[in-house]
Amino acid sequence: MPHQHWQTEPEEHDFPAAMNYLSLIIGDDVANDVVSELRIKPTVVYMAKDLLRASRLSLLGKDNKHVAGDLRKVEKGEHLSPVLLVRGEAITNMPLVVADGYHRICASYWIDENADIPCRLATWPR
Question: DSSP class of residue 119?
């Protein structure tokens, strides 16, 4: 499979998906602020293995429906959308939050755990 399998910019539908998830854990107003920040942040890169460790999320199997779908996309030469993240906080023991793109992170890990994944990274509003 190709090592480079990422778009440079998130797809528009990723932002409402992040809003839906974040509103469940932080409420609509704060989620809206975070998603607004994600829209304007520059794209940065982190390795799949580091994103999983920082988020404390488990690696989903290749047989997971969504991971398998992303792996098929990459096999066909399609590029995946960058992931949307909210920075964790070590002092409060809060992990990195994957607002959108968990399955894409897992798919990329199965391709190459050391590959760089494009991300947009926001911080919690103060």
Answer: E
Three-class HEC string of 62-103: CCCHHHHHHHHHHHCCCCECCEEEECCECCCCECCEEEECHH
Q: CB-based contacts of 116: which residues, under 8 Å, 6+ apart?
A: 45, 46, 47
Contact by Cβ (8 Å): 53, 95: no
b/e map 41-53, b = 16+ CB within 10 Å: eeeeebbbbebbe
Phi-psi region of 125 (alpha: psi -120 to 50; beta: other; left: phi over 0): beta
Kindly report the pTM of this predicted structure: 0.93
Map residue 34 onto helix, strand or coil: helix
**Tens digit of pLDDT for each residue in 57-81?**
999 999 999 999 999 999 999 999 9
> Which two tokens mark 87?
């920075």
**Cβ contact 113:51 at 8 Å:** no
**Does an H or E element contain 45, and which?**
strand 44-47
Query: What are the extents of the domains in the chain?
Result: 14-122
Residue whose pair of structure tokens reads 């429906």 in the numeric block: 65
